[in-house]
Amino acid sequence: MTLLIFDCDGVLVDSEPIANEILSETLTALGRPITARECMRTQVGRSLADILRETEALVGHALPGNVAEDMNARLFARFRQELRAIAGVAEALAALPGPRCLASSSRPERIDLALSVTGLASCFQHRFSAIQVARGKPAPDLFLLAAREMGATPARAIVIEDSVAGVVAARAAGMRAVGFVGGGHAAPDLAARLTAAGAEHVIAEMRDLPATISRLLSHAA
Length: 221
Fold this sequence. Notes:
The protein is built from 10 helices and 6 strands, in the order βαααααβαβαβαβαβα. The chain has 2 domains: 3-15 and 83-220, HAD superfamily/HAD-like (Rossmann fold, 3-Layer(aba) Sandwich); 16-82, DNA polymerase, domain 1 (Orthogonal Bundle). The model has no long low-confidence stretch (mean pLDDT 93). By secondary structure, the chain is α/β, with parallel strands linked by helices. α8 links the parallel β4 and β5. A 6-stranded parallel β-sheet has the order 3-2-1-4-5-6, sandwiched between helices. The longest helix has 16 residues, at 67-82. Helix content is 48%, strand content 11%.
């Protein structure tokens, strides 16, 4: 059986506009001026730990120890009020065959909250976070961990991703990738960028995912 590996933010839940507003505010206050739009272009798919390490190097001094906790507190409050599932994702998941799991750059508590408030928690019994590996996306570590834990070979895994970093990670892991551009953060050039990164198909509607996966499986056969 082919394993389906789903990213969370921007694929299952429309969280990226919220998260990148908070990220932009935080990084700017730390001395790294950046807009939410630029965050969505350059930081989506990366772990917060990697972003903060890079920011610390850029500003040339240690960051306050409570940065991540403060960001999460603000983010979680907005998730509880505003977060919605990607349109059609529950129906798409119900129509997809075989084993599936979630592999996200976010921390487990953020993943769990996002799935809970959007009603998707029961759809994913197996969840993996970038905190479980040494290197986050675009390194392949997280997807390789997910495949190993799920008992699948990389060649028999398909990743559904909305970020260039995620598609690059999937391809580096030896997996196939489907790009998704239906999230609120998707810029007009995102489909082309995902294709250039190695996505075999790019879809803008979750209702198209089951047929897309079916085509990929037929081609593999």
